């Protein structure tokens, strides 16, 4: 039985229309059943691991903020006082299958929008201070109780100070107060100020979404265009007459250069490929390890035919673009920042790949698998994005 059950009267359409990216929303009793997928001790154990990103935020009298970065020594964590600190561990979904499973409760949003699940354990009084985030977040309350003060949307004029590496708001006007109990969820859109404080020792799961800035998108897309550009294509003059004032930039030359640049940016084909790669870039590429000995397409075909099972590497991200007239009828599959061009017959396979669990191994339907999709599966297995497990029971 799943440890999470979303209440049956939750209406994702109404939520998306009325609340998503618009207003902070308390989803009272969002989970009818919520069993914490990990304990405070297990979280502390992760914070002691070198490859896990963690931090400890503490404060004295609500003002003196301190932030320390992990990994921590177990003794260091054991020696902490009873009150006023929070231990935060990033991307716990990569390490704890039970936390990864929590993502399925948010399947009313595209999987490629989800970034990671940060888990925090706060003792009474623990807080990370008044702040805002640049991305959407669902704060899922686990064991214990937290109070959240909610303030207005912040803008360019909102004053923020760096306190020990924390970007905290200089002024915070609470407009609303909510207290979360186990199974409650608080949704906070980008930019809205919030200030949480643990009322009792408590766990909180922050399901965060990817929200690249326009600057990052411009940079990423133009990098791709630059890499593909022909250096022999250069600025050309349009004026055949000598300039009356040689120091002046005339409007015709200016418009010509501008148009040339706009034309090179206006490439929906390149954009589609770049976007798919961009949104599937893994956060922790080091966790995707290729096989030491690459398998051949024949070996993969044989393994699938005899019932070997597959699962997605938890660090891997998959997405696809179905064939359509705007992409020349091509099926594009994206895995971990790379694009794969496939024949349309691979659509079912690609959909199956995108719905593969990162927790449980499952059989791939070999009957439905077209031979033309095998090179893709082989490449994904060899690069470590797909994990293959031989099914001994199915071996002859
Ligand atoms: C927390 O888990 O205490 C902080 C989460 C947040 O404010 O985004
Ligand atoms: Co926040």
Q: Any descriptors?
A:
Jelly Rolls; Malonyl-Coenzyme A Acyl Carrier Protein, domain 2; alpha+beta; 23% helix; 10 helices; globular; binds succinic acid; binds cobalt (II) ion; 396 residues
Could you give the distance between the termini?
32 Å
SS-based structural class? Answer: alpha+beta
Quickly give the CATH architecture of the largest domain: Sandwich
What Rg do the Cα atoms give?
Answer: 25 Å
Average predicted local confidence, pLDDT: 94
What characteristic shape results from the CA principal axes?
globular
Question: What spatial order of strands do you see in the largest sheet?
Answer: 2-13-8-15-7-6-4-5
Query: Approximately what portion of the residues adopt beta-strand conformation?
Result: 25-35%
How many E-type strands? 21
Would you kindly provide a written description of the structure presented here, covering whatever features stand out?
With 396 residues, this protein is α+β, with helices and mostly antiparallel strands. It has two domains: 12-209, Jelly Rolls (Sandwich); 285-389, Malonyl-Coenzyme A Acyl Carrier Protein, domain 2. Helix content is 23%, strand content 27%. The protein has ten helices and 21 strands. It has helices at residues 12-18, 40-47, 74-78, 97-100, 214-228, 251-265, 268-279, 297-305, 347-354, 374-383; strands at 4-6, 25-27, 31-34, 54-60, 64-69, 85-89, 114-122, 137-141, 146-153, 160-163, 166-169, 176-180, 185-188, 192-198, 202-209, 309-312, 318-321, 331-335, 338-342, 362-363, 386-389. Strands 2-13-8-15-7-6-4-5 form an eight-stranded antiparallel beta sheet, with helices on one face. The radius of gyration is 25 Å and the shape is globular. The structure holds succinic acid and cobalt (II) ion (CO). Succinic acid is lined by residues 86, 120, 122, 128, 133, 137, 194, 196, 204, 206.
